[in-house]
Task: inverse folding
């Protein structure tokens, strides 16, 4: 199995690749290939070519949540490629897709998606709505949602909203999904943005599977966290004896620096990173 970070905020040694505020993974398993998120603009397509990834050979298209920086490449991908991957999103993905950031009392910036359910159906993709706590996608991959909130310091951002009619409501990110890949060493959890809280997510996954977590990669959404929350998060991750910590996208420089100082098994999971499992 292999996990490739097709696009992310930062670049590593491969300076010919594009980077952007967004995230996209290509996950190769014996039972099918998964595209998990599509970044902000569709630039992941050019990166895939440079990385030798054939985007025509995608069996599953999964979106972690309905934000532009994770779903912005969907239209470009499906317009450019004649493919029919199974499409996986939360059952409330489209219902709660009018997402906004509150800038001040009466000013909102749209940060949702630029397509709807009809667009996916017009492309003849079979939509699979994730509503169970855990589903087994294939022999090696699990999909999770409905994360339990067990860490009260993992607070929601009060400025993250979704619109229902004329009302702007606090976004609890009940539409977020995460993946776990089963390996001989334990589970590797693949995170989109961790809006429900990275510890809430990994604890939920550990509880539901009964399997040890070997690694976590992806967005931890610690960019808005204060020093106390960052330190608590790192402390809990170390207590769980997680051996591989590769953060991306929405982690933030302050948290990245703390991980570097306190975790031996840490790396920045930048654009072009390839993990052979």
Result:
């Amino acid at each position: 199995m292999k996990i490739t970070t097709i696009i992310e905020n930062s670049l590593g040694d491969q300076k010919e690749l594009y980077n952007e505020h967004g995230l996209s993974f290509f996950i190769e398993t014996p039972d099918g290939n998964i595209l998990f998120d599509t970044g902000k603009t569709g630039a992941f397509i050019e990166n895939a070519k440079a990385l030798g990834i054939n985007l025509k050979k995608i069996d599953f298209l999964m979106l972690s949540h309905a934000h532009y920086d994770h779903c912005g490449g969907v239209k470009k991908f499906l317009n450019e490629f004649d493919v029919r991957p199974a499409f996986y999103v939360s059952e409330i993905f489209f219902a709660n897709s009018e997402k906004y950031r509150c800038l001040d009392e009466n000013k909102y910036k749209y940060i949702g998606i630029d397509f709807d359910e009809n667009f996916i159906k017009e492309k003849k993709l079979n939509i699979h709505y994730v509503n169970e706590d855990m589903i087994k996608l294939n022999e090696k991959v699990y999909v999770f949602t409905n994360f339990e909130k067990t860490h009260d310091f993992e607070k929601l951002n009060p400025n993250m909203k979704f619109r229902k009619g004329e009302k702007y409501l606090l976004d609890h990110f009940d539409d977020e999904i995460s993946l776990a890949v089963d390996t001989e060493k334990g589970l590797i959890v693949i995170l989109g943005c961790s809006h429900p809280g990275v510890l809430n997510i990994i604890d939920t996954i550990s509880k539901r599977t009964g399997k040890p977590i070997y690694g976590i990669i992806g967005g931890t959404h610690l960019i808005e966290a204060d020093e106390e929350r960052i330190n608590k998060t790192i402390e809990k991750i170390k207590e769980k004896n997680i051996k591989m910590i590769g953060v991306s996208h929405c982690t933030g420089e302050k948290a990245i620096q703390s991980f570097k100082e306190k975790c031996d098994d840490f790396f920045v999971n930048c654009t072009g990173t390839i993990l052979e499992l």
Remarks:
- Helices lie at 44-50, 68-71, 74-80, 117-122, 198-209, 227-239, 253-262.
- The two ends are 5 Å apart (CA to CA).
- The domain at 2-276 is CATH 3.60.15.10 (Metallo-beta-lactamase; Chain A).
- The mean pLDDT is 96.
